[in-house]
Amino acid sequence: xxPFRPFLLLLCxxxxxxxxxxxxxxxxxxxRTCIALDLWLPADFADPSWLESQLxxxxxxxxxxxxxxQVALVHxxxxxxxxxxxxxxxxxxxxxxxxxxxxxxxxxxxxxxADPAAVRKGVTWRNGAAVWVIGSQTGMxxxxxxxxxHVLGLPHSTEAASLMNKKPRIWPPPWQIGxxxxxxxxxxxxxxxxxxxxxxxxxxxx
Length: 206
Ligand SMILES: [Zn+2]
Prior knowledge:
By secondary structure, the chain is of the alpha/beta class. Helix content is 25%, strand content 20%. It has helices spanning 6-13, 48-62, 87-93, 143-151, 184-196, and strands spanning 33-41, 67-76, 83-84, 102-107, 109-110, 122-127, 130-136. The strands form two sheets. Strands 2-1-4-7-6 form a five-stranded mixed beta sheet, with helices on both faces. The protein has a two-stranded parallel ribbon with strand order 3-5. It is globular. Bound molecules: zinc ion (ZN).
């Protein structure tokens, strides 16, 4: 039998620290199905307009499947995880909070898992059945939407008009890039399954 560790138990019971930014400060979702997000930010994060653009693009693009996202909770990241350089740190993020709502970790710096010298803008990270999104606060405004595509079962794509295509391209223009017709049924099926199995939660309707 493992020794009783009151200190560790106490740590687990401590509530996560709320952030100065509140969910009400961020865009609301008006879709039929609003996926709830548990947002984690560095303590010194002070760029709500960056969050707003990420959420707005995600909501615009997810509208084709009748879905959207809304931040339900905002937490402060522990200082040692404000910069993610290693696979171990990506996994440590998974110990914060609960598996649902879907966790969106915004970090000051996100290194490539295979090449620590390379920088990543976002990643959908899975560990067992759990999944969470890590975004670098230097990421372009469509990064959250792209990662939500992965959460909803999409791989990368070679279609020019797909948001899941990572290749730099001049055509089509960014506002014409979204989830392609052939991607949408996969997303709908995955969303339905994840809601059914409680891997995702929706924002309660007021
Ligand atoms: Zn990707």
